[in-house]
Amino acid sequence: MGGQKFQYDESGGTFFYFLLSFLALLLVPGTYYWWPRKVVEDPTKYEKDCHCKGCKKKQNILKSNEPWKGTKQLLTKLVIVLGWLCLALLAYKVSQFDYEYANFDPYEILGVPMGSSMSEIKRAYKTLSLTHHPDKKTGDEKAFMKLNKAYKALTDPESRKNWEKYGNPDGPGAMSFGIALPSWIVEKENSVWVLGLYALVFMVALPTVVGIWWYRSIQYTGDQVLLSTSQMYFYFFHRTPCMPLKRVILILSASLEFEKQYNSEIVERPTDNIEYPQIMKQLSNFGEKNKEKPICYLYALRARVIMFAHLSRIPLPEKTLDKDRMYIIKKCPYLIREMVNVVSTLIMLAYARRVSRLLSIETIENCMKLCPMLVQGMWEYKSPLLQLPHVGEEHLKFFLSKKRPVKTIQQFAQLKHEDRRSILRFLDDDQYEDVMKVVGRMPLIDFSVRCEVIDDEASTVFTAGATVTVSVTMVRKYMQTLFGDETINVKYCDAEADAEPKEGEEEDETKAKEKEAKKEASAAGGDSSGADESDLSDDDADRSDDEDSGDKNVSHLEWKTSLLLIFKSHSTVLIIFYYLSYSFLLQEAMEDDDDWAKFQSNFTRRRDWVLEGKSKLSHTVHCPYFPEEKQEYWWVYISDRKSRTLLTTPVHITGLVDKEEVQLNFTAPRWPGVYIFTVCLRSDSYLGFDQTQEIKLDVKEAPEVPVDHPQWEISGEEEEEAKPEGDASDISEFATDEDIDE
């Protein structure tokens, strides 16, 4: 066998393979992700949208924020098209290269079969040479050169023998491996430039890009809030356990996102020293004399002016302060969410005795309350009816009739068409239709709660110190279901919401009504378990006797399944590892097949939730004073109103489209007695849409743990101590002390 040698591409032909592969790797995913797609708009969108003055202004602002959107899309398309053209040219070049440098076959070139005689070969050569000779009109120099080479290979006995034996007229040759890079890269005169380019890319540019990315990433939390801002929140909230709403606004305005030193997007103008004091004169209870740092800093003072003016709906100069308002207000929901996380963390640290002060429930609720205030652009003490289009403070007197005063949007929706039109008689038909569109699409949440103790045989019996699981089910409907009309105008809402329920849905509604009736009956009868036992459906009650025996075995491993939710960023690997490592062990540990089926069902549900991720789309909020499109989000938590404390960390629900269910866990009180806790549902988008529901827990005294349990597992060290020296191998791992003594 011949030797082996490596060589660079002298002609530069095979280098096209590298370019072709590299360009294809960029173009295929790049085209899929970056090709501008035309958004298919709903043809009935214009009829469904509100056309009030605020909504029109907001739409114009959103369009003006992207003036180069069409140009960017056109340039993106041109770049992608040019890339595909280059790919096509490279593919054509490679195909020509393959054709020209294909394996040399003299029989194929002369058009004669293998084993032909010399006369046949000469005859074929003569015929083809007359056709391909360069002196002829139909001549082809390359084809004629190949023809001569093929003729020489077959007329020379040694060349013909080498061809038939080795497939090469020149005999056995060395095996060569080509490197798809041009040879000038390794030439001596170009070495300095090649090394310089290598050093620039891998020693300067790449470390710089990675360093900048790392430096920026470590400055922010998961919600893209500066860590310095979070530290400031921890300091102020720990100092003030019971914080009023006004002070929450002061701390929010001091967020470092509004400081130009930390945020280059902040714009400072020479006219700010004139315009800001003019707006401050129109604000009451502003608190400009506060001397705390950084609340007293100039950037915090300006942000506070913007927030107060936004909440008071004071018009600002469009080219200066109104731009500041749009930037500051759109940042506030993320900052408020971080505030809620900070306060809930401090409360849980206080329970663990890591911090000395326990924050009150009013502090975290004031943070939550501030979010819908900024989204709707109004103070909390204002009427929630001001969230409706075309309705101002001068129109509120029409809602306060002597017969039936209307104070909430829900009360307004329940009126008949004649009564609603009578109240809104100051509006024309188009404006009245805008109001009904907005009201019809507002949320109506069916809020149900069920309590149980999963890791106990009797799931509805609450003992001191037990872990109570509260399942909160939220069904989102449109407010138009409250309309007092006999017929509902379908254009206020989506077709899916207006569709008639199917047979199965009618049965579910019937069961729900029966369930509510049973709940009222149990509450009237004074059941000791209160709303907890009544929340169980008939099917759950029928299955409870069969499943209670296996609940304990399953529940010991529920917390292990919950650990997966913590490592959400590595969910796929962890889920596969968890399932493979535990499925076999758990199947052996569970005595009943129903227990194993129940665990698999629970695991599959949580695995799917982890893999799908947390959705950020729900329903669009009507908020003409908010500078961006806003989605409906909710907070759910459990509190103790008597002690003014928070029992569970608030869960932020961002994907409530039709139905959502969350589980809240807390530890039952240590002392027996009857306790009443409150499950709270708060909106971060609308004022006056919060709901609460009380749960009643009759906490019993915890039973004593039996010393000798027939199925109590003994650890490895205790088992060795318990085994007699003589016949340790004959003793079962489940043996009791009495068995060992015998």
From TrEMBL:
Domain J stretches: 105-167
Gene Ontology BP annotations: post-translational protein targeting to endoplasmic reticulum membrane; SRP-dependent cotranslational protein targeting to membrane
An example molecular function term from Gene Ontology annotations: protein transmembrane transporter activity
Keyword list, A-Z: Chaperone, Endoplasmic reticulum, Membrane, Protein transport, Transmembrane, Transmembrane helix, Transport
SMART domains: DnaJ, Sec63
Pfam family, one: DnaJ
Composition skew (Acidic residues), residue ranges: 498-509, 530-549, 715-742
Bias type Basic and acidic residues, positions: 510-521, 701-711
SUPFAM superfamilies, per the entry: Chaperone J-domain, E set domains, Sec63 N-terminal domain-like
UniProt membrane topology term: Multi-pass membrane protein
Main location: endoplasmic reticulum
Residues covered by region (Disordered): 498-553, 701-742
UniProt key word S-adenosyl-L-methionine: no
CC annotations in GO: Sec62/Sec63 complex
Listed transmembrane segments: 15-35, 74-92, 192-215
KW Transmembrane (keyword) present: yes
Subcellular location field: Endoplasmic reticulum membrane
Protein known as: J domain-containing protein
Origin species: Nesidiocoris tenuis
Organismal lineage: Eukaryota, Metazoa, Ecdysozoa, Arthropoda, Hexapoda
